[in-house]
Design goal:
By secondary structure, the protein is mainly α. Helix content is about 65%, strand content about 0%. The protein is globular and about 60 Å long.
């Protein structure tokens, strides 16, 4: 009981901290939450599936009861939703272009606009149409930031519950004890970032879980449609598509690719057209040409290139690194046919790891897909990284991504992570039995 209370209490304290520059505080209680999480996993034999479910529901409810403190992205979510209700396509105008409209006379809209970062005001929306549905739904009920954020969090959590249900079914399909899913759904990073800070990786992962269940149980049409929905929450699931090529038969994989492509395009046409598709692409391109956060290999290679160019070549090295990642993933995905589901999901894990390790912008919530994929493998390095990556919040204390303090913290994070990553890669899995999938085969009767 002490571990459970420690877990719940520490997540509450991290979520409730209003000042994200108070790094020592949030780092201390996040560490306590993470240690408690590992202790719960180690003692999983003592708990039934529903025990973990009650703990998860408790921390989710706690994480819903406040406006996010560690992220201000939710202001842009509310803005996009309100623009649609005002008959304005959020892909047609930047927020700063609408600041003199009549609807801005309300205190509610002024509060939202004031909360949007300067960078976001100067750019078009980069959130795909299905993601926009959550924004639209959440802003339909009131003119209160708190109420609308609460509604949006509720929608996110309900979608995540569907993900738990289908991930459990998928693990049972593979004859794995379904308690394995709590590696993801009890992870403090997942709870704090998806529910607490209202990032939509939780929704994307839930749709991905449902999609994978239908794909692995040969319901390809439904699985492909749900995969397309996941893409319309976050674009990154597209990285996983090449790995299906050597698992399904050629006819089946062609069907899956075709349906995903058609559905993605049809959904895009609900808000995107010839006039604004460039706006969406431009905003998305910021992540490759302008943004740089919590990167290590990319940052250092970019700094090395700068020695020869005399200026920051991010606008060129970002797209170049993206091409390198894409080619590497394609080579890795196509290198062998006739693979099992375990090999397929391991390859997805390492492919997505490569994408993140070489990325220019790696916010903590970006690595959550690794946690989902690790559920099906013997590798625990995503769990280890989910602890270390949270310390990137140190940036907000300093405010300069290039400061020596931030670079030192980032270097420590990546050196520790890469060392453990290489260790598990060479040893073919985690040294901790309770983090290996072998430990969970042959599901128990209570599961």
């Amino acid at each position: 009981m002490g571990i459970i209370l420690c877990f719940i209490g520490s997540i509450f304290l991290v979520n409730w901290e209003a000042d994200r520059t108070n790094f020592a505080y949030i780092a201390l209680f996040y560490t306590i939450a993470f240690v408690s999480y590992l202790l719960l996993l180690r003692e999983e034999a003592r708990f039934k599936f529903w025990h973990f479910a009650v703990i998860a529901i408790t921390v989710q409810v706690i994480s819903m009861l406040y406006v996010p403190n560690l992220s201000d992205d939710y202001f842009r979510f509310l803005w996009d939703g309100e623009m649609t209700w005002n008959g304005i396509n959020p892909f047609d105008f930047k927020p700063e272009e609408l600041s003199d409209r009549a609807f801005m006379d309300s205190a509610y809209m002024q509060e939202i606009y004031a909360g949007i970062t300067d960078l976001s005001r100067r750019n078009y929306s980069c959130y795909p149409p299905v993601n926009q549905l959550y924004f639209i739904s959440a802003t339909a009920f009131s003119s209160s930031v708190f109420v609308n954020v609460l509604v949006m969090k509720l929608l996110v959590v309900l979608t995540e519950v569907a993900g738990v249900f289908y991930l459990r079914k998928l693990l049972l399909h593979f004859k794995v004890n379904p308690k394995r899913l709590w590696l993801l759904y009890l992870n403090p990073l997942f709870i704090i970032e998806c529910t607490g800070n209202l990032h939509f990786e939780g929704v994307m992962l839930a749709l991905l879980c449902i999609s994978l269940y239908f794909l692995f149980t040969s319901r390809f049409l439904l699985g492909a449609i749900l995969f397309a929905l996941a893409v319309h929450i976050k674009i990154v699931p597209l990285i996983l598509l090449p790995f299906f090529y050597n698992y399904f038969t050629r006819n089946k994989v062609l069907l899956v690719y075709t349906v995903i492509g058609v559905v993605v395009i049809l959904l895009a046409l609900t808000q995107l057209d010839i006039g604004n598709i460039g706006h969406f692409g431009k905003s998305l391109g910021l992540y490759f040409k302008v943004f740089e956060f919590n990167s290590f290999l990319f940052y250092n290679s970019n700094a090395f290139a700068q020695l020869f160019t005399g200026y920051n070549p991010l606008a060129y090295t970002g797209p170049l690194m993206s091409v390198v990642v894409l080619v590497s993933i394609l080579i890795y995905a196509f290198k062998e046919a006739e693979i099992s589901w375990k090999i397929l999901l391991e390859r997805m894990l390492f492919g997505f790891s490569l994408y993140l390790i070489l990325g220019s912008t790696v916010h903590p919530w970006y690595m959550l897909p690794l946690l989902l994929l690790s559920v099906f493998t013997n590798y625990a390095f995503p769990i280890f990284w989910s602890c270390l990556i949270f310390f990137s919040y140190f940036f907000y204390t300093v405010g300069d991504v290039n400061s020596w303090e931030v670079r030192l913290m980032t270097s420590i994070e990546y050196i520790l992570f890469l060392a453990y990553f290489i260790y598990e890669w060479r040893k073919n899995g985690s040294p901790f039995a309770f983090l290996r999938i072998d430990h969970y085969f042959q599901p128990k009767s209570e599961a």
